[in-house]
Fold this protein.
Amino acid sequence: MTRFHQITPSLDCNWRSLILFGRNVASYKFALGKTLLECSTGEATQLSLEQLAPTFARNVCEHLLLCDKQSTSPTSSFLDTCRRFNQGEIAEDQLIATTVRKGFNNVIDAFHVVNQHPLETRFYTDDRKQGGGITLTDELFKLHGMTQGASLNEEIEARWRLVETAWSLNMSRNLISVEADSDENVLYVRGDRRIDITSSRGALNGYQKGRCFYCFDEVSISDGADQLADVDHFFPWILKREGFMPDADGVWNLVLACRSCNRGQEGKFAKVPTASLVERLYQRNRYLIDSHHPLRETLIKQTGNSDEERRAFLQGKYKDAIEVLIHDWEPTPRGPSAF
């Protein structure tokens, strides 16, 4: 996480550090993150817990309908209240009142904390001891106005779906493996049946900081966007088709690329990215591993238990790929180095 943050300590990088690298014992950080992003579209800066509660509770209730497991704790009176609301047993005013009393108890304090230490950049200040709620900072409103602002909500959704799916499977972490469907651009896990989790774009974009893996040009993950990212196989998929790299659909080999790099006139196509880009893939995969389960366990299972093993794994893949495809490739940078 330190390298992720230090290379580009921008507002969106600070935000992504909070969402992607914090340890999760409940999904409340995701619900608060989505609530803050929604609030950033308005003009109000001072918000009481009563004003935050409807959006926060709605986010939790919607995800409970997708996955009933929203915490590692066996019991939660707040989550029970949300379940009762979903089942039509209580009215919305009761849900909101309980959310004000119990929903924010820990998450407001913990939101800015990563690896047991708070980041300096704050997207709100906590005014509860003064009898208030929270005050949104200029940084949150600036975040909303950034080009990457439109992608952040989808990134939270992707991260939330990964975490809650891992919890719901009730499996040991080292048994959970996320797989990729290249045709549908989704990540999924296999239990007794296939469970689609989230889009590949949403799951990968934050770790690339909204940039093309190869040239660092900005990309989007919003459907219909002019700069919509392609999900690309770093080592070309033709290697799998021809039987040389059967694991090429692994998450370790998937990156987001701009259209120019992936299929433009000077694009990669069936060429092998250079050794320096292999090292970049190693670093991107380290970010995925640092993000905790289930992507952590997936990447370790796919590429090795130690940094040395994982680097050797990629170097071996590069050697195999260049022997088959001969030609290497690296584009001219179109943006500042992001990772």
Residues 2-145 form one domain.
